[in-house]
Amino acid sequence: MSKNNAELKELAKIPEWVVDVDHASVAWCNQVACGLFVESSNKKEQDLPAISVSLQRRLAKFLWSLEKGPTRPVTWTFQCVQGQYYDCKGSVISLGPQTYGVKVSAIKRQSLFRTQTSLKEEKSALKNALFATSITPKNHHVKRSVTATTKVQETEQDTSFNLPISEFSQLSLAVFDDELNLVEASLLFKDTFIGIGSLKDIFALKSDLNKVLRFLASPDAFKINGSAQNWALRLSTSQGIRWHQLELHYDIKQTKYCLSLSDIHALREHENSLFKLINYDSLTGLPNRHRLYQELDLILNASRNNGSEFGVFYLDLDGFKVVNDSFGHRVGDELIVQVAKRLASALPKGIRLFRLGGDEFALLHENVSGIIELEIMAQHLMQVACAAYPVAEMEMLITASIGIAHYPSHGQDVDTILKRADVAMYKAKAIGHNSYKVYDSNMSQSLNAYMTLGGGLRRAIENQEFELYYQPKVRLSDQFTVGAEALIRWQHPELGMISPDRFIPIAEETGLILPLGEWVIRTACQQLQKWREQGHPEISLSVNLSGRQFMQTDLVNMVQQVLKETGVNPKNLELELTESMLMADADQTIEKLHSFRALGLSLSIDDFGTGYSSLAYLKKFPIQTLKIDRSFVRDLGSNSDDNAIVKATIAMASSLNLKVIAEGVENNSQLNVLKGYNCEEVQGFFFARPMSSKDFSLYMKNEASNTSNSLRVM
User: Fold this and answer.
1) Could you list the residue range(s) of the whole structural domain that residue 402 is in?
2) For residue 314, which of 344, 425, 571, 578 is within the disulfide window of CB 3.0 to 4.6 Å?
3) What percent of the chain has pLDDT over 70?
4) pLDDT (tens digit, 9 = 90+) per residue, 630-639?
């Protein structure tokens, strides 16, 4: 019992009180605490202290934080009326239904600065914001007005703090004389600025020093904003150049400058990081869409004032979704970085590049002389963008579609100009990749139609609105049909027949090209089987593969399964691929092509001469046929360059044991030139346009009948 009594006596010596936070007052305190708050000459039971507004806010914030979960007890240091210092600790306590206060206990300190002190305590000591000025007795520093809730107000008081600056270990403080020479400094200041003798020595930038010196030389210094001046400046510290908040006071009586510093370098770094996060793309480091809007606002206002012109480019990579789907997002990201670097390095002064997200970029071209200058830049960008990129140990080829809008021709505000550049880009993408378009007023209507088609594609697949047409391939030696090319058409219920030029780019972008491509292969094989059952001569049927479809990982298995289901002889099915498709990843292409050859299929390079094939790779590709693009056939007989290209292509193919087909033959002149160059097969309107399966059956039936009649006549 004696031990318990001793403990109770010790507990009785601990000052304790309860703060009513809502009423900014002390609701209760024990006798020991009362002795700390109220001077002995004024000790009366009703002399309960009040608390300052600043302390009330702090305690209210503490109570509010408890609603979010457990938190640390609130702590502070105060000086009692006798001058001693106490460590104070508060915890929550109930004062009634839905009402809470703070219960406080305090422990006396032997010395505030001879023991290890906290940064908060030193700040409190420096600013004389100790508890002695926060909890004040009724008759000492407080005036009460008699109201129902007893409001408390604090009067002005002398809050000077006379402890030596050298005692401060966690605040950076210094005193300088009128000549700005160091007089006294805290331990932290001396550790931060080693060997400093003058205020001038702490500045990292001369411009910052001059700013402060100009202020000090001003006759109105320290009068505009009271007794102190604040700057955020870069200072030379023992840890390098760091940002500090500098607060400078002037003591008129002692003619000394008092300096208080706070290291805000981490805060500035955080602000810079936040600024970059908001305004710059994390992958490429380019300014982003948010920054583009800011820059456009500034340029638009400047252009209105000085009458200058500017242009906006929207640039979108063609077939980028294929890269992501086939090789993964890591490879896609690497390609985006490579594109950004190349574009940025190729831009002249006055043009800024932005990444808007995904594979979409924007460029801002200031002070242009007209739309023609913008078109010249677009042509340059296309040439820069389309060269091969070294990505993931591959040489990737990718092109770009570009839309152009011009101020003031295409809009008077930021949103309109950007929207019209975007519309022009969609138009460029809709008519074919690797092209640019300048906005015109008809494009908005075209874009609506483009988006309408995109929305109807999936429904069209489900409703079987697509149909295959077939164009004959003719052997030149006897002009006999030996094959056909399957060409897809969309029979739209409202818009009628839609050509593939309009919907294939949309299918590529949306990914619907995969189910659509499988439907084409399956339908073509089924048709081959029907023709055989109808007794028609065996012909080869070629099907075009899209870039995204060719990258499909299970493409070989899918084709094998279709051949098995339909019973088609694989030698009668030919797959047509473009040069750029084959060169996107040559090594994997070779492997996939050999897998197709193992199935017994024939392989053809479509539109030969329009891509970027390497003859070294051409030798490695297991290709059987080269198809000369119609752009070289169109002017045969009248253009010597085209004649030379076609002749050289046929000769090269012959040396490599490859068959050659010329497409787009429309007249006798072209036909005669091709015969002279020993071209083996042709297709084009001269012989037949693409036709439905029913019409193609009649075509083959008539040809067989004509051949039979010719043989009988002979």
Assistant:
1) 280-441
2) 425
3) 80
4) 888 888 877 7
